[in-house]
Amino acid sequence: MKDSEARHHAAETWRRYPAAQQPDWPDEAKLRSVVRQLSLAPPLVFAAECDLLRRRMAAVARGEAMLLQGGDCAETFGQTTAQSIHGKLKTLLQMAVVLTHASALPVVKVGRMAGQYAKPRSSGEERRDGIVLPAYRGDAVNGLEFTAETRQPDPDRLRMMYEHSAITLNLIRALTTGGFADLRRVHTWNQGFVADSRSGERYERLAEEIDRSLAFMHACGVDTRGLDTAEFFVSHEGLLLEYEAALTRAEPGMDRPYATSGHMLWIGERTRDLDGAHVEYFSRVANPIAVKLGPAVSVDVVMGLLDRLDPNREPGRLTFVVRAGADRIRDVLPTLVEKLKAEGAQVCWVSDPMHGNTIAAASGHKTRRFDAILEEVRGFVEVHRELGSHPGGIHVELTGDDVTECVGGSNAILPEQLHQRYETACDPRLNHTQSLDLAFLLAEMYCDHADRAA
Ligand code: PEP
Ligand code: CO
């Protein structure tokens, strides 16, 4: 077998394992045709960018940087708009400024963007008024509208996923390198409804401080031009293996191929089976990989994931995203951290304070309490402080819009208000203000520690 064939083969071994959460595509011939087209399409990201992110994540693993990962639970094709992409980007940039300022650590910025179009579901079907249809699995598979036609999986949507990812990534690349992310424009990210909130005002004061510092550095002859671009990466759950395999590319001279659909991909709580196709596929590609860990995960499974996904114990390769729930995090996390430390593993630990804290409001809306989200992050940070390990960052669902999907925060969204702007296609997201609130409160946790350590 030639080298390139061997590498290509590496992206196909998953087919011998059971793949959870894959759609029942009704038209196999159409699926094969779309997958063939995708396998000939240009990559969305490049190997060297994935390697750069792996080096940045290695700094997180060593305790020298923080990860900020966020975006929609489910991106939708309809929301591939300049406003939506701008909104998420500026929210993440603002949060990163707040966190960098407090922790004095570089913040690695990763969007749940440009590819977050596929969703695992706890039930394959949805029932409404006696009618049962396939569950919505994300725009990459079917549509949200509750009709038999829209809920039918359509392989052509995989092609649309590629296109919408490319469009989104194009704007992200333009915004982060074309002046929008210039640190000398920190004020301009603080417009709209967030500016009137308590966190918005606090941010404005911080932005003034940054302005003064930059002016001071400039006056001292320091060249601040390097601050006019931001490094930003994209990530999504690597759920649909036909899509991921079709976009896997081998690079000459490299041992392992890369998933080129995004810089970092993660394996979800429902697909991290050690004997399953997802772990097999991700063990074969060279990207930085994250795995979600729910409250019931065993130490043995975590050790198994480490061995399969990071056999060489390469810092930055593997991130564990813990989503135990505010009431479980303090019980679940210590054993995992201690066991991995004893193994000499250098993984990144990240908190997803969203997915263990989802509740149903009286109105029937799926929601999350801001206080529960904060409490899980606090538990996560405290456990790490007690064990002397690094709380590597957060993974959150957010949007730059003024939605009413999570309750609480400085603007105190009430359960009765959820219906006002409940727009998510899947899980409830923090709105712009709540995201900034979280950044400031998390920043305080890091500041407290820096004060104590000093
Ligand atoms: C998600 O991140 O939207 C998700 C489904 O998470 P998890 O796999 O942790 O449930
Ligand atoms: Co979600």
Portion in strands: 5-15%
Overall mean confidence score, pLDDT? 95
- What is the helical fraction, as a range of percent? 40-55%
Give the terminus-to-terminus CA distance.
58 Å
* Spatial shape: globular
Q: Name the structural class.
A: alpha/beta
- The first-level CATH class name: Alpha Beta
- Adjacency order of strands in the biggest sheet: 11-10-9-8-5-2-1-14
Largest sheet: 8 strands, parallel
The name of the CATH architecture is Alpha-Beta Barrel
Order of SSEs, N→C?
A: HHHEHEEEHHHEHEEEHEHEHEEEHEH
Hetero compounds: phosphoenolpyruvate, cobalt (II) ion
Radius of gyration: 21 Å
Total discrete domains: 1
Helix count from the secondary structure assignment: 13
pLDDT < 50 runs, ≥5 residues: none
**Could you name the CATH topology?**
TIM Barrel
Find the CATH superfamily. Answer: Aldolase class I
| Count of strand segments | 14
Describe this structure in words.
The chain has helices spanning 3-10, 28-40, 47-61, 82-103, 148-151, 156-177, 198-219, 241-246, 277-283, 299-309, 329-342, 370-387, 432-453, and strands at 66-71, 107-112, 125-128, 131-134, 232-237, 248-249, 258-259, 264-267, 289-293, 318-322, 348-351, 359-360, 366-367, 393-397. By secondary structure, the chain is an alpha/beta fold. It has one domain: Aldolase class I (TIM Barrel). The strands form four sheets. Strands 11-10-9-8-5-2-1-14 form an eight-stranded parallel sheet, with helices on both faces. The chain has a two-stranded antiparallel sheet with strand order 3-4. The chain is globular. It starts with a helix and ends with a helix. The relative contact order is 0.16. The model has no long low-confidence stretch (mean pLDDT 95). The site of phosphoenolpyruvate (PEP) has 10 residues, from loops.
